[in-house]
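Subject: complex prediction, re-run

Hi both,

The earlier run crashed halfway through, so I resubmitted it with identical inputs.
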Amino acid sequence: MNKKPNMNMKGGRPKAKKGTLKRVLKFLFKYYKPLLCVVIVCLVISALVNSISSIFTQQFLTLITEGLEIYEANGTANAASVALEAVYPKIVKLVILLMCIYLTGLICNFTWTRIMAKVTQGTLNNMRREMFSKMQTLPIKYFDTHPHGDIMSHYTNDIDTLRQLISQSIPSLISSGIVLLSLICIMLYFSVQLFCVVVVGACLMVFMTRTIGGRSAKYFIRQQKSLGNEEGYIEEMMNGQKVVKVFCHEDACKEDFDKINDQLFHDAREANKFANILGPILGNIGNLLYVLVVFVGGALLLSGNVTNPISGKLLDVTIVATFLNMTRQFCMNVNQASQHVNSIAMALAGASRIFDLLDEEPEQDEGYVTLVNAAYDKAGNLIETKERTNLWAWKHPHKDGTLTYKLLEGDVRMTDVDFGYVPEKTVLHDITLYAEPGQKVAFVGSTGAGKTTITNLINRFYDIADGKVRYDGININKIKKADLRRSLGVVLQDTNLFTGTVMENIRYGRLDATDEEVYVAAQLANAHDFITRLPDGYNTMLTGNGANLSQGQRQLISIARAAVADPPVMILDEATSSIDTRTEALVSQGMDGLMYGRTVFVIAHRLSTVRNSDVIMVLEKGRIIERGSHDKLISEKGKYYQLYTGAFELE
Amino acid sequence: MIGMLKRLSKCIKGYGKETFFSPFFIALEVIIECIIPYVTAELVNYLKNAPVLEMATIAKYGILLVVLAIASLSCGVLSGWFCATASCGFAKNLRHDLYYKVQDYSFANIDKFSTSSLVTRLTTDVTNVQQAFMMLIRIAIRAPFMLIFALVMAFIMGGALACIYVALVPVLGLALFFIARKVMPIFKGAFRKYDTLNESVQENIEGIRVVKSFVREDFETEKFKKASGDLAKDFERAEKILALNNPFMQIAINTSMVCVCLFASHLIISTGGKAFDIGNYSGLLTYGIQILSNCMMLSMVFVTMTMSMESARRIVEVLDEESTIKNPENPVMTVENGDITFENVSFKYSEKAEKNALSDINLRIRSGETIGIIGGTGSSKSSLIQMISRLYDATEGTVKVGGVDVRDYDLETLRNEVAVVLQKNVLFSGTIKENLRWGDPNASDEELVRVCKLACADEFVSQFPNGYDTYIERGGTNVSGGQKQRLCIARALLKKPKILILDDSTSAVDTKTDAMIRRAFREEIPGTTKIIIAQRISSVEDADRIIVLEGGRIDGIGSHAELLGTNAIYREVYESQVKGGSEE
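This time it finished cleanly. Structure:
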């Protein structure tokens, strides 16, 4: 389930839902409307400036030709100064105008690039934040049904493609589009005939992009597949590296690896070959086009007196020379745009996946009963208090407007519960159970028998039909999820610690716990000893889910974390499975002290963990097959007895 | 730095030709590409100045240009092909060298790097370096070549006017360089933060049950928002500086345009178009754009190179790591028997560790004995047995097997005779048969069934629809924990070792099957020394001797009955398991 992120996302041909681009733009504009308007104006202006310089080139050339004609017509010794006097002031004037235009373009360019830096990062930040806060509201089901690597890739791959889209592709496409458009206009103004030549070249370029691009895409998909294959292999072998050593299997592993590595090499080479040749091919089509323009231009000049049917302009050498530069510019922009097509498709696919996450149904919560600290007033009535009193009450507003307080006792009842994660497969059948306040209730059974599922229903990670689970007599669907969960301390088998100090990790249970309270909780969990022996004691940084601790130590910390929360009801799901039996005995003494008079649910594999429970439920295939105290179950000589005497394997 | 590049350049091996030809053709392409505008300029001048235009001359120019374009295209394509082969080959060699190196690593080396970091180095880091290599043999050659040739052509064509570019290039280059210099550390820091942010998202996803159980959704969201906002600020700062590239480039191009316009038009007119002509003029502009845009390319190359340095460093770190355990010069090739001796052995996991994991271990185990080891979490039970097959070397003292120091044996011989079933054991994707044959590649099918029967694995394997050909998924997810452990034991048995070590290898197996496996050991392989580490007293109580470890020292050795009488720890463990909990 917890595979490395992003492997499978790259494999298929990226596809985006319809309307994704619109939604991305909408998202952009939602936060940065005024700034984006400025950006667009600046973009348009600087693109226009870029293309307009061709007109200037033509003007300069005309002036120069004019000057040359004067020079030749004069023929005297001071022809040069005469000619210069005649045209140079005009040239200088033109240059000054050009400089002004350039300056405008420059200011626009400077403005939009800087604004886009802010908009890009701001938008990515907003996107990340929206994704994360949305993700926090999603039900556990979402996390159980989506590979974690896939969820992760929203934050890495998909956001990265979006960055590319916003910061580069969109501006570049807008700018290329405007430049191309204005170039077309100028070209049409100068010479329709030569423009036709350029169009032929452009079509060829688009065609080449499609064929070679398609070829390269095919191999890139293969490359992604082999890459994923190789990464998977590496991950598997690195994880089993110690086993490899123990079996002296190194040579065989090398052989296998070489095969996979060669396959990747082959696919990567093909993919890169096609990708690498697209650039030179497009570039040289540009060159050929350039030659063609010269040629056709020359031929047209030769035939003489060719006028433009649109503008009526007479084709002359200045126009041909300008056209050459425009051809180059045109090709460069087509080339640029063609490079962005791929990244836009990728980005839209990424964005569409992000929107899928944002569109997920959040966890539903219609609960209105809340949990409050409580105390008895002098008359013996429950009242709500602000401070912690070690007494809790359910605050229950009724339809008629009255408000009642009900003491939290930890009485949990399930009646006739059937449940399945998917409709086709029921995993719990007919479960009826009751945990009276202060009882320790244990669940025993094989993996898949449904032990954890029961606890999933108690804390409403999964929901079932109304009224089947009652907590202190209240239908748990009426209890606000946050308050329900706050009343339940949960320690899970898979310990999850967060990056931070040991202190912060324990305090996660109750954010306002003092240092002393953390120490006490750690002592209860029998974790204090080893924590003080860590390099920095309670301030030791934990990273990578506490990679520097043993599994047993991690479990002790997570028990301390639950202990500091000091919850009215506790669920221990295989919480001590990796702790040796001696330490476990100490931990359970501590926990029993803490939870004295409160309800505890225990799930365990090891029977010594559950032996002193008030009630033990033996589950098999989603049904409770035996229930009773240890002694009672032993005397019944049923499944529990078999388990206890070691005649049966629990898995 | 030099050493690093030297090490990396070794990986070009086998692709030297391609690595050479890629820049070679790129250089050719550049030269041709620079000639094209020159010829075009000639043609334009001809069109303009020739008194009578001759079709033949125009055709000559035309054909020359087409030939040049085709030549340039061929060079470009060839270079692209060579580059693809060279860079992919380079990456292949790099991965190959890394993987082979890791195969030679000892346990201590693997611990030092950690599995996940090794995976990243073999995947992401290699990809980064491959990208940089690709850039190095194409763009990093192309850009300066282009710059130089275009500059030369600009001089040929524009004479003194090309000095404009000579003046502009260093100014632009410096500006771009300083931007890159300024931006890089910010980016580096930001990317590190980005990784941390993503790690914390990963943590959140993995631990979502904890988050929801403690109702910490808002807390987590706030934490994330702050971190994400911080990150965005850093990236924004970097990108704003980087965004200056664009206007700087613009300034350079604009300045060159303006200067060329002013000076060139003056020159053309004042010489009557003799020294300089319209063709030269437009050629000069073309070269100008080429020169300046290649400055930009160079700055990009610079940024990419510097960014991939970190990856390169991480790769070379793995390649340069010396295995801490090596085969001796004249190794002993046979193991006489299954005797094991520990003489004053102490052990710590790294030189820096303050505390010894094991201290003053003295122990003699006779061939064929069954030894149980018991001790709490962190009592170094696994460390003790890992020294027998030299998975780690003792820090002080000697460990002997069959009367010979383990450091004198050929590693493969030793490890084949000392089979260890690790606590954190793994099955690999493949059929059960394939997995078992890790123990002995030549084992017959009957042999497989025999060891599986010994390990009580045959009973469930033969129940599978595909029996021994059942495919084990990656990570062994389609067999239960107990089944996996039994298969791992069978795999080790197939080696027919003189010493068999089970490191908590039956913890998920029920006590009855556990007992059956032990009985099979006793009856079927009596000559093999067996060492069994366990949490359960029942797994070790019938051993010849039981060692009680506490805090890395031997707290007691003896039979079950002896220890119950003399050893407090053993008695406590026994009581916690057998006699029941707190009510007694």
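The radius of gyration of chain A is 37 Å.

- K.
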